[in-house]
Amino acid sequence: MSGTIRLTAAQAMMRWLSVQMTEEGERFIEAVWAIFGHGNVAGIGEALHGIGDALPTLRGQNEQTMAHAAIAWTKTRKRRRAMAVTSSIGPGATNMVTAAALAHVNRLPLLLIPGDVFANRRPDPVLQQIEDFGDGTVSANDCFRPVSRYFDRISRPEHLLTALPRAMQVMTDPANCGPVTLAFCQDVQAEAYDWPEAFFAPKVWRIRRPEPDAAELAEVVALIRKAERPVIVSGGGVIYSGAEATLLDFARHHRIPVVETQAGKGAIDWREELNLGSPGVTGTDAGNAACARADLIIGVGTRFQDFTTGSWTAFANPARRLVSINLTGYDAAKHGAVPLVADARVALERIGAALGAHRFAEPDAAPRADWFALADKAMAAPNHDGLPSDAQVIGAVQRVAGENTVVMCAAGTMPGALQVLWRASPGGYHMEYGYSCMGYEVAGALGIAMARPEAEVICMVGDGSYMMANSELATAVMLKVPFTVVLTDNRGYGCINRLQQECGGEEFNNMYASSNVVEEPQIDFVAHAASMGAHAEKVSDIAALEAAIRAARGRDIPSVVVIDTEALTGAGIGGGWWDVAVPQTGQGDKLGAARERYETWMQKQQLVN
Fold first, then answer.
1. How far apart are CA 88 and CA 139, in angstroms?
2. What value does the mean pLDDT take over residues 569-580?
3. Which helix (H) or strand (E) holds 2?
4. In the UniProt record, does the keyword Transferase occur (predicted)?
């Protein structure tokens, strides 16, 4: 019979987390990001100090961006490992709600440990406590409930005996993977308890690979055999499954073209002849043409988000059928799809074995070649003295990129322009577009560079997103984590400004020039980044941008390269329709014309098979 060990609840939590292992023999929770306040400094802070390098503590500048760095780290590690983030109660905790939502949408594991109010309620109301006049059990941390895959409040030490294993089960479950919130009452953190020694025995967590149901598999195989022009939509689930090579072999063997979502881009090398680029709103001409003709759409590890489907106008063949291979039944059954609930790699192997030598006609290579010729023109260096477009900035980065370059982004113009233009080597693309969270970029670049120190990480960010959240530059300097930030300054929210006008609106409140300001700000981004210790410079043209990116490769701190850009063009090529509701009534002929176009497109939506 095992004995017991007396520890505080916080000490027990950290000791337990330090021995939760992967099949590869690594700690599942790599580290704990922490900003301390009165709600976690005494209990959790003491426990983290005591555990030391067995569960390292990292210090950031903002609770939300620390969590963003943790999310980018686990996304880069293909969900096989994760990080934890702890905060005090009140604003420290609610700062993390946005990050929890981001992890939830993207199906990424993240352990959030916000401090909470006193379980004993003796000093209520404590500093920063939110009081619900009708429910004494509510605290600010209840905001995490809708954006957590698992939520628990630790109001007694022994709650950890069940809460911690449940948390790990969720984070390692490929079908239910997502953020976990363990709201930790601050007095309970400090309470001692006699813990069973067996609770701290190392445990290996295996990430399962569910096999497909035989009937579902047979139906999908029959649909593929019957099809004439199938297309595969490769999503993030392909990468998380480690199914990149399997998908490529499957597509080649059966001669089925592939298009890639934002999360799935980089699973297959851009040079592969069957890779037609992206579909939908930010789709390539070749990808969207293939999707429009296809009589069978085979989704692999995708949620069929509206950008992928062109708000359900991209798959235009009225006779088309939809197959969805997904670990989650909820996603697999969307929009009347024929579901195949299984791990992506296993599913492709089983389908391939059943299809045998079945092959489709050789796809026409011309649309792909035509697309690359068009993209080359869009990305070429400008031959005029005006400001470059975002596409021309992407072209500059592309020309100097190597096989180990990872380009990343999250919001604004760049995500769409990168999806349609960037030529990704395997593993060379990281986009947070499930939540498209402004402010993810700098923190995300830090997380990627920590997860892949051998890679060259290039963060593409506009001035709007940079202004939202940039403080983890200082953390990268402190940790000596190098990456390159290409900051495009178009003096406002250029992407939404274009959308506003496309929807019939007038230019308003997006660019500084059309906002209610007394004077337009002249922000010195170079001085700002340099003040946090980063190398920073402003370049005047595309050639200087290329040289600055090359020079950054020799540094052990982040480099910020600022370049002014024009705000009107965006990617300039490719694309499809996006359902953004246009007002039915309002002022001006432009709005009326936009509404008329909107109603025309609505008639083209095919929402159910």
1. 13
2. 93
3. none
4. yes
Give the mean model confidence (pLDDT) for residues 437-455: 98
User: Contact at 8 Å (CB) between 72 and 82?
Assistant: no
Residue with tokens 């996006």: 578
Nearest to 71 by CA among 299, 378, 404, 408: 408
Q: How is residue 12 written in tokens?
A: 């027990």
Q: Would you state the structure tokens that stand for residue 316, as one six-digit string?
A: 């235009």
Q: Amino acid letter at 245?
A: A
Please report the pLDDT score of residue 330 as a whole number.
94
pTM summary value: 0.97
C-alpha triplet 232, 233, 236: angle, nearest 5°:
130
- In angstroms, the CA 563 to CA 538 distance is 6
Q: CB–CB of 539/367 below 8 Å?
A: no
Report the SS3 class of residue 175: coil
Residue-wise pLDDT for 306-331, tens only, equals 999 999 999 999 999 999 999 999 99
Assess whether the previous peptide bond of 125 is cis (omega < 30° from 0).
yes
Q: Which residue has the tokens 């299809």?
A: 355
Q: Please check whether residue 591 is in contact with residue 505, taking contact to mean a CB–CB distance below 8 angstroms.
A: yes
* Residues, the chain: 609
**Torsion sign, CA atoms 581, 585, 588, 590:** positive
Mention every residue, 6+ apart, whose C-beta is less than 8 A from residue 28.
20, 21, 22, 81, 82, 168, 171, 172, 205
Of 390, 115, 355, 338, the C-alpha closest to 254 is 355
Q: Is the pLDDT of residue 400 over 90?
A: yes
The distance from CA 501 to its chain's CA centroid, rounded to whole angstroms, is: 28
Residue 609 has pLDDT above 90, yes or no: no
What domains sit in the chain, N to C, each tagged with a CATH number?
4-205 (3.40.50.970), 214-363 (3.40.50.1220), 380-564 (3.40.50.970)
Nearest-Å Rg of the Cα atoms of the chain is 25
Query: How many Cβ atoms are within 10 Å of 468's Cβ, its own excluded?
Result: 19
- 183-193 average pLDDT score: 98
